[in-house]
């Protein structure tokens, strides 16, 4: 079974990552959810990244705010794909987090989604796994078809409403 790690810099990030965890589980993929700080527990962060593959992890999602170095720390020591999820902050609305994650040095890539875009982080993880697992790719195709169907239904409803104006 495939497994995605969802790591957050502090417990206060959980409301942000919850949608990713829920989405990943809805695809039948196991999650390993942890609180690990790049700054307060750097040795644990390094050890986690170094041993993730041995535990069956195939993608790591890292959610963090402010300095948001967690994804970069993980990406520096693992060959697994790392997805950065910037968390909204009071000071800059998450721009500080976004820039900390997206501005990685050459050779240490971290895929980055939008601020608080937890669902997109989960979907990106599923797209990565879908390359290897046809059943996940099929579930993704169904997910996207449902989105198209909803847009089409919304458009039809709008067109009906416009007829009565």
Describe this structure as you would to a colleague:
Helices cover 50% and strands 16% of the residues. The protein is α/β, with parallel strands linked by helices. It has two domains: 3-132, Rossmann fold (3-Layer(aba) Sandwich), CATH 3.40.50; 134-165. Helix 1 (14-26) runs parallel beside helix 5 (118-130) and helix 5 (118-130) crosses helix 6.
Summed up, the helix count is 6
Q: Note the gap between the termini.
A: 54 Å
Level-2 CATH architecture of the largest domain: 3-Layer(aba) Sandwich
| Share of helical residues | 40-55%
| Mean pLDDT across all amino acids | 96
Largest sheet: 5 strands, parallel
Comma- or semicolon-separated keywords:
alpha/beta, Rossmann fold, single chain, globular, 165 residues
In short:
By secondary structure, this protein is of the alpha/beta class.
Helix-strand layout with pairing:
Elements lengths: L2 E6 L5 H13 L3 E6 L6 H10 L5 E8 L5 H8 L4 E5 L8 H8 L8 E2 L5 H13 L3 H30 L2
Parallel strand pairs: 1-2, 1-3, 3-4, 4-5
Helix pairs in contact: 1-5, 2-3, 5-6
């Amino acid at each position: 079974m495939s497994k995605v790690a969802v790591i957050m810099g502090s417990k206060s990030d959980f409301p942000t990552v919850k949608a990713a965890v829920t989405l990943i589980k809805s695809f039948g993929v196991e999650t390993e959810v942890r609180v690990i700080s790049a700054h307060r527990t750097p040795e644990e962060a390094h050890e986690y990244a170094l041993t993730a593959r041995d535990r069956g992890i195939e993608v790591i999602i890292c959610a963090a705010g402010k300095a948001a170095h967690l994804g970069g720390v993980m990406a520096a020591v693992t060959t697994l794909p790392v997805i950065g999820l910037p968390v909204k902050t009071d000071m800059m609305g998450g721009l500080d987090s976004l820039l900390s994650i997206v501005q990685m040095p050459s050779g240490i890539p971290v895929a980055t989604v939008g601020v608080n875009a937890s669902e997109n982080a989960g979907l990106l993880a599923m797209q990565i796994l879908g390359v290897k697992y046809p059943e996940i790719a099929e579930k993704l195709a169904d997910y996207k078809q449902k989105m198209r169907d909803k847009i089409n239904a919304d458009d039809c409803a709008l067109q009906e409403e416009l007829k009565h104006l």
